[in-house]
Amino acid sequence: MWAPGLLGPLALLAFSAGGCQGLSFQLPPQTRKCLKEELHRDVMVTGEYTVSEATAPGIKTDLRVTDSSGHLLYSREDAKKGKFAFTTDDYEIYEICFESHGQPGNFRVPDQLITLNVKHGVEARNYEDIAKAEKLKPLEVDLRRLEDLSESIVKDFAFMKQREEEMRDTNESTSSRIFYFSIFSMLCLVGLATWQVFYLRRFFKAKKLIE
Asked: What CATH number corresponds to the domain at position 58?
């Protein structure tokens, strides 16, 4: 699921889960809007975008697609219309950003309309090309699509199970550390209290307040 992320003065957009995700939004001058999503390894991602013409001279919109490590996967300066595609190398957060540059002057400049359609996983595959290459019949193409979808669901469940196991191990390890730390803290408090009792006893004896 594409999730909101914050980068300076940006407005953020969230997508519903699924393979095909499309939206339109307004991009004011000199602002940046981004969207993020966590994707598994070896997932194909395709995107198609359209940026409306700026009504003021000097206004340009750049498009950048990066991962959480800052690796540039796609870049286009003064983006107007185009497509991009990439395959994820690892489980990371991937980000698509549109950024407006230029001085609008002293007058009000209308926002640019950006249309973006992102697909990933099964929906990003072109089954028409696969059918032509492998000479598949329509029913075989549908079966291939269902097979890929089933495989994707199985991988998602396996990944969620792995994450659940990792979180469980982390919780057990944290609980164990807290338990031993609590015991250590209580022993320190008992030791400190015992030392205070003996110290005060010697002090009062020295002052001849007690025998």
From this structure: 2.60.120.380
